[in-house]
Design brief:
single chain; about 500 residues; alpha+beta; Beta Polymerase, domain 2; 3 domains; two-stranded antiparallel sheet; 13 strands; about 10% strand
Length: about 500
């Protein structure tokens, strides 16, 4: 049983009450049949745009394909705007992107015939009562009369392909890809996200006509590419793009690494290493920027390689790779902030760290170069790189120790600078010149604040200064030593807790 949103029910009811046919169509039907909650709901009808607008005054149209967007009062962002498209047919696509002409079709079957793949070329007339939908299957029957059975319109056997986990073009595959070449990438995307296989003739048409992607805008290619990158099976998606001859039109630089051997530190060749690194990043559900950096971190190795076999070198590949990454992402029209971040992750993915060998000042320098906000993602890229190299652990001891040092150097030092007063206040209130006494008083006040942070108030601290000023230098020195010892104990305890967090000693 799947809950049909009230907004969709109201739209279907509104059209049917005016005598029009209305269906949910495309991806939402596919998801309903998979018992998956649809992310988007699309409605199609035999009403033309003018008629749709009359039924729904709170609507607008901003395209030439007749789609009307109905505004709803939904609190769900995905249902605030619902698209209704008239049944339509299209003439040829001269530019491989847009139909030369669109005209309204008479039947739902005509409309479905223009769609991309059979699993997306199904429509459903919702038998809705009490805002719920039940779909009859072979294992069960519905006897409750207050529910009616929705009618599935499936002229191209999409339900069978759904069951068989097959991506098949509607009708002639070459014609479908000629209408919109981006469907070539969409086939891969659906195969990857749904876990399906591409049918043989559809696959052949893709391999034959992959070059048609050159007619598609970089923004549209980028969007489909990223849907593959953020999928759980992202690595399989990249390999499928390569096998089908598509990758060369998106990121040809990746293919330069195919078959290029590495050295004794890697058991996989460059291309496979990059793909496996992406696979780990996807498995761990790292964000899209980390996934891109994992895929591209060694993109420059084929261009800087010197020598062969186990002693081959790739000096400077991280620097060249950062420049190549920026060029690739610029070409695909990525946002500037994403380009800068991914290029930075590639640039610094090769950071060096050995316990007891790299100083805290070196770690501070790296944090400044990368940015503290990017350090966690840099470590994730390093983990993906390690697994992609064939090593058994993503987080060895020294990497955990590195995380510990990063957090340690990021912590504010415990010092008198934390106080709401300073040495000038001491000199002014006590009427004394610079000297050891000022430091002793500040150390004592810091001890008060560490014991009770609520005491870090200017009025309280200045009052205590007056009291401390009457004490002898010997007494102040004794109290200051005690305060320093308590501070060291606090610092030690904080450090022990940070070490414990990363399982280091």
């Amino acid at each position: 049983m799947i809950k049909v949103p009230r907004e969709i029910k109201d739209i279907i009811d509104g059209l049917e009450k005016k005598g029009f046919q209305a269906f949910v169509v495309g991806g939402c039907v596919r998801d309903l049949l998979r018992s998956v909650e649809p992310e988007d709901w699309d409605v199609t009808t035999n009403a033309n745009p003018e008629e749709i607008s009359k039924v729904f005054p709170s609507s607008f149209s901003d395209n030439k394909f007749g789609t009307i967007t109905v505004l709803t009062d939904s609190k769900n962002p995905r249902l605030k705007e619902v698209e209704i498209t008239p049944f339509r047919k299209e003439t040829k696509y001269s530019d491989k992107r847009h139909p030369d002409e669109v005209f309204w079709a008479k039947t739902i079957e005509d409309d479905l015939s223009r769609r991309d793949f059979t699993v997306n070329a199904m429509a459903m007339s919702l038998g809705i009562k009490n805002n719920e939908l039940r779909i009859r299957d072979k294992k069960s029957a519905i006897h409750n009369s207050k529910f009616t059975i929705p009618k599935l319109i499936d002229p191209f056997d999409g339900q069978k392909d759904l069951k068989d986990k097959t991506i098949r073009a509607v009708g002639n595959a070459e014609e479908r890809f000629g209408e919109d070449a981006l469907r070539i990438m969409r086939a891969v995307r659906f195969a990857v996200t749904l876990g399906f296989e591409i049918e043989e003739k559809t696959r052949e048409a893709i391999e034959k006509n992959a070059s048609w992607l050159k007619a598609i805008s970089k923004e549209r290619i980028r969007d489909e590419f990223m849907k593959i990158i953020i999928a759980y099976r992202a690595a399989d998606g990249i390999e499928l793009l390569r096998n089908l001859g598509i990758l060369q039109y998106i990121v040809p630089e990746l293919e330069e690494g195919y078959g290029v051997g590495q050295n004794k530190h890697h058991i996989y060749e460059c291309y496979k290493h990059n793909v496996l690194s992406l696979g780990y990043a996807a498995k761990k559900k790292f964000n899209s920027n980390v996934r891109l950096a994992a895929l591209l971190h060694d993109i420059a190795k084929p261009r800087v390689k010197a020598g062969e076999g186990s002693d081959a070198t790739f000096y400077g590949h991280e620097i060249v790779g950062a420049k190549m990454t920026a060029q690739i992402l610029n070409r695909l029209k990525f946002p500037k902030k994403d380009i800068e971040k991914v290029a930075k992750l590639v640039r610094y993915h090769l950071f060096y760290y050995n316990v007891g060998e790299v100083s805290e000042s070196s770690v501070r320098r790296l944090v400044r170069q990368v940015g503290p906000e990017n350090m966690e993602e840099l470590l994730q890229v390093r983990m993906a790189d390690r697994i992609g190299s064939g090593v058994p652990k993503a987080e060895p001891y020294k990497l955990r120790h590195f995380q510990y040092v990063i957090e340690k150097v990021a912590q504010d030092p415990i010092s008198a600078k934390m106080l709401k007063v300073n040495g000038n206040d001491v000199m002014k209130i006590l009427g004394i010149n610079p000297g050891p006494k000022i430091g002793s008083i500040l150390d004592i006040l810091l001890g008060y604040v560490l014991a009770d942070p609520s005491k870090n108030k200017e009025d309280f601290l200045k009052e205590e200064m007056g009291k401390l000023g009457s004490l002898s230098d010997g007494k102040l020195s004794e109290m200051a030593k005690k305060g320093k010892k308590e501070r060291e104990q606090i610092e030690q305890k904080r450090d022990e807790m940070t070490k414990k967090k990363y399982w280091v000693s």
